[in-house]
Every structure is written in structure tokens, then in C-alpha cells.
Design a protein that fits this description.
- The complex is a heterodimer of chains A (113) and B (113).
- With 113 residues, chain A is an all-beta fold.
- Chain A is built from no helices and 11 strands.
- In chain A, strands 2, 4, 5, 6, 9, 10 and 11 form a 7-stranded mixed beta sheet that branches.
- Chain A is globular.
- The N and C termini of chain A lie far apart (33 Å).
- Chain B is an all-beta fold.
- In chain B, strands 2, 5, 6, 10, 11 and 12 form a 6-stranded mixed beta sheet that branches. In chain B, strands 3-9-8-7 form a 4-stranded antiparallel beta sheet, with no helix packed on it.
- In chain B, 37% of the residues are buried.
- The chains are: A mainly beta (113), B mainly beta (113).
- At the A-B interface, strand 4, strand 5 and strand 10 of A face strand 5, strand 6 and strand 11 of B.
């Protein structure tokens, strides 16, 4: 399968713990995006990379969230000191930028107890 | 700033009838416009896009969309709906000068036999 993959698919954690998610994009795509989706809402932009450079980060994103794409390939999204409000589906997508569409992974569902 | 509105949470049509799922957008510059579909327990899948050129664009599974600059709309259409078209549909916009996409909150399409 040459699509976008995300790991883990599900994560249950206790409030205050740190979590890290991984995304492996389609190999030839230079752009990688992170979104958060809650029930009844569309994907909400978090951040995106072009190659290894993080070009934009949502102002809604608190300092507890950080993302990296160290070699311009896979990316990680870390949430520190999780809160119950962080419970959501975290989506990763990759693409070629400009007018090209994004290809989405299956998402990581986070539940914070 | 950019935004998307999908004014209908739910659209119900009978199989064989035409369907329309509405989308209006706002961008400061020129838009790239996209439609994505999400089937239950599946990731978002790209349907079609408007970049430039013809206002009527055709996409996967017989769907098409019409870009109307004066009305800032990009409605999704299909001449004859199938039960298998039942899914959650998202409209997205990206300013041609921006990197991130903004998604609407989605419209649930139900096609009844």
C-alpha cells in the first residue's frame, strides 16, 4: 500500500500524559499536513510542512502541540500534558502543494480520560 | 482569511434523482476549490478540484462541480444518485497564495432506494 499511513490508529491516555503520533506520507509528496477533526466538524488545520520546513502553524494550536518532519519524510505530532479537550481524530495528509489535492491517512483517534 | 460554508448538514435524495451539495467560500485572492468524500470508517478521499479554466469540473464516480465566481460557490452535483453515494462530503478552499486548506463542516448525503 503506497498511501498515507498513521500510527497508532487508536490511543487512549490519561490526562496529563504526553502522546506522540507518526505519519508516513506518500514518498514523492513534498508537503505534509496535520489536521484535527471532532464529531460534526470538518478537518481543522493544525500545521503543515514543505519538505522539512514547518511553514505554518495554526494560531489555535497551543504550545503543548509540536510537530516535526526531520528529514522531509515522516512526521511526528506530539501533544504534551494532554487535556480532555484534546480528544479528537488527528489526520495527516500529504500532497504536492499548489493546486494539487491532498491524500489523507486513516487518522489516529485520541481519547483522553 | 479564508472560509467555507456548507449550509446543509444533511441532504436526502431518492436513488436515480439528481443531487446537489452546496458550498460557498471566501478568500482574499483567487481560490483553489476541492471536494472530498468520507465513507464510514474510511479516510477522506479526493473527488474533484477547481484550479483554473472551465467552470464545470468533472471528478470521480460521476460527480461534477460548478465554480461560480460571482456567487463564490462551488456546488457538487451528480445527475443520477446511487445508494452507494451515501457518505459525508466536505468542501475545501485554499487561497492560491496560501499553503493551508480550510474545510467546511461537511454535509451528510443519504440516497434512499
Amino acid at each position: 500500500d503506497t498511501g498515507v499511513s498513521q500510527d497508532p490508529r487508536h490511543k487512549i491516555t490519561k490526562r496529563g500524559q504526553n502522546v506522540t503520533f507518526r505519519c508516513d506520507p506518500i514518498s514523492e509528496h513534498n508537503r505534509l499536513y496535520w489536521y484535527r477533526q471532532t464529531l460534526g466538524q470538518g478537518p481543522e488545520f493544525l500545521t503543515y510542512f514543505q519538505n522539512e520546513a514547518q511553514l505554518e502553524k495554526s494560531r489555535l494550536l497551543s504550545d503543548r502541540f509540536s510537530a516535526e518532519r526531520p528529514k522531509g519524510s515522516f512526521s511526528t505530532l506530539e501533544i504534551q500534558r494532554t487535556e480532555q479537550g484534546d480528544s479528537a481524530m488527528y489526520l495527516c495528509a500529504s500532497g504536492r502543494g499548489d493546486g494539487n489535492e491532498q491524500f489523507f491517512g486513516p487518522g489516529t483517534r485520541l481519547t483522553v480520560l | 482569511a479564508q472560509s467555507v460554508a456548507q449550509p446543509e448538514d444533511q441532504v436526502n435524495v431518492a436513488e436515480g434523482n439528481p443531487l446537489t451539495v452546496k458550498c460557498t467560500y471566501s478568500v482574499s485572492g483567487n481560490p483553489y476549490l476541492f471536494w472530498y468524500v468520507q465513507y464510514p470508517n474510511r479516510g477522506l478521499q479526493f473527488l474533484l478540484k477547481y484550479i483554473t479554466g472551465d467552470n464545470l469540473v468533472k471528478g470521480s464516480y460521476g460527480f461534477e462541480a460548478e465554480f461560480n465566481k460571482s456567487q463564490t460557490s462551488f456546488h457538487l452535483k451528480k445527475p443520477s444518485a446511487l445508494v452507494s453515494d451515501s457518505a459525508l462530503y466536505f468542501c475545501a478552499v485554499r487561497d492560491t497564495n496560501a499553503g493551508k486548506s480550510t474545510f467546511g463542516d461537511g454535509t451528510t448525503l443519504t440516497v434512499k432506494p
